Amino acid sequence: MEVYATTHRGLEKITAEEIQELGGKLKKYSNGRVYFKCDEKLIDKLNYHARTCERIILLLKSTKVTGLEDIYNEIKDIDFSFIRPSESFAVRSKRVGVHNFNSMDIARVAGDAIIKSYQSSAEKRLKVNLDSPDNIIRVELIHDLLLVGVDTTGDKGLHRRGYRVYQHPAPLNPTIAAALLKISKWKPENILVDPMCGSGTILVEAALMGSNIPPGHLRECEKLQFDHKLKIMGIEKFRKHVKGCQETLSRLGIDFIKIKQGDAEHLEKYVQEADNIVTNPPYGIRVGRKSKIKKLYHNFLKTAKNILTENGSITLLTPQEKILKNTATKLDYEWTETPIIYGNLPVKIFKLTI
Ligand SMILES: C[S@@+](CC[C@H](N)C(=O)[O-])C[C@H]1O[C@@H](n2cnc3c(N)ncnc32)[C@H](O)[C@@H]1O
Question: Is 329 exposed, middle or buried (0-12, 13-18, 19+ CB in 10 A)?
Answer without folding.
Answer: exposed
